[in-house]
Amino acid sequence: MSDISNPDNLETLINSYLCRRLERDEISGLAVAFLSRGMPAKLWCLGQANVEHNVPVCEKTVFKLGSLSKHILAVGIMLLVQEGKISLADPISAHLEHVPSGWEPITIEMLLNHTSGLRRDLANERPFALRSLSQTFCDTDNHELISSPGSAFHYSNLGYFVLGYLIEVVVKSSLQSFFQSVLFDRLAMWGTRTTSPSDIIPHRASSYHLRGSTLLNAGDLRQFRPSGAFLSTIEDMIIWDRALRGNCLLTADSMERMVKLPELAGGQTSPYGLGLYISNGRNGRILFHGGGLWSFRTYYLCAIDAGVSLVVLSNSRHADVASITADILRLASPSVESDWKVTILPET
Q1: Contacts of 125 by beta carbon, 8 Å cutoff, 6+ apart
Q2: Cα–Cα distance between 295 and 207 in angstroms, integer?
Q3: Which helix (H) or strand (E) holds 135?
Q4: Distance between the two ends of the chain, CA-based, in angstroms?
Q5: Spatial separation of the C-alpha atoms in residues 216 and 76, rounded to whole Å
Q6: DSSP 61
Q7: At what angle do helices 69-82 and 157-171 cross, to 10 degrees?
Q8: What is the pTM for the complete model shown?
Q9: Rounded Cα–Cα distance for residues 228 and 346 (Å)
Q10: Tell me: the pLDDT tens digits for 300-348?
């Protein structure tokens, strides 16, 4: 249960805190949502989506999600599992041609939970080149494994490149078309889609970074990265959280599979389920993930048993979204905060 006793006072406290953080850390823009079971969502939008044009952040401002995208991609995979089109135990070679030598034991589940043995990123990645996922997959030929498949946890964006390509092969359409039809249109998440550097996207935020005390435009990547596939808004992430917690998308069995922690070599347990870190505390399970793609920073936490969730989206590279998450939880739900160990992820 939430620790909230006075919702109006809490809203004021969090607003004051966020205003201080925005000014102190010179954060360009922030969108934050706090959800507690049985209560209306609390939403804060501060700062600017575009500094040059003085456009404020609002509930429809579109941010890159970075690695928050991983659990959305995982839900897409689980929908294909529910339809019988794939199995988590399938080796990727059952669906993809020309799999590199040594990758034959890698299963779909291993890619999802980062136990495939793949390195973190593509060795010869070209972030400013426009390339298809099939072209990128061809560049994996010389990628040797860093551990035996299923034996160890190694965070791998490359694994999610492979998953994105696998989805396109299985459904015979683009990731954008697939996720738009099976998830975003279905949930009326009108501000959510795959990233694109060239499409005209209403309400898209620009991103910024500091060089010393000077604020600079961050520019953009051209290479599509399934590991950080999606753009979204704070109002859409509220919809997403409710759908995820309410089993509106996945069966109860599929959701349990998402949060099951794999056993590794030596009897150790991995900290990572399917697309999400999992923490087990006195108040139940906490699902969480951070994201950092170019100069966007994001965090999502869902205390699924306690009924508390928090989303933080920012267009500033220097925004410490993990500590903002921790501080808000300390104000709003200290019992959940005490169960949760802050995990800061590398850039997507």
Answers
A1: 223
A2: 5
A3: helix 133-138
A4: 32
A5: 36
A6: -
A7: 40
A8: 0.91
A9: 12
A10: 999 999 999 999 999 999 999 999 999 999 999 888 887 776 555 544 5
Q: Which two structure tokens, joined as six digits, stand for 331?
A: 């104000």
Q: What DSSP character marks residue 119?
A: -
Nearest partner of 83 among 149, 165, 181, 159, judged by Cα: 181
Contact present, 234 and 315 (Cβ < 8 Å): no
* DSSP H or E run through 108: helix 108-112
For 263, phi then psi, to 5°, come to -85, 140
Amino acid identity, position 216? L
What are the average pLDDT values for consecutive 10-residue runs of the chain, which has 348 residues? Answer: 64 95 96 92 96 97 96 97 97 90 92 93 63 60 80 93 94 95 97 91 93 84 75 98 92 94 88 94 89 91 93 96 93 83 52
Question: How far apart (Å, rounded) are the C-alpha atoms in residues 240 and 335?
Answer: 24
Say which amino acid occupies 129.
A
Q: What is the pLDDT of residues 199-220, one digit of tens each?
A: 999 999 999 988 888 888 887 7
Q: If you count them, how many residues does the chain have?
A: 348
Query: To 10 degrees, what angle do helices 7-24 and 321-332 make?
Result: 160
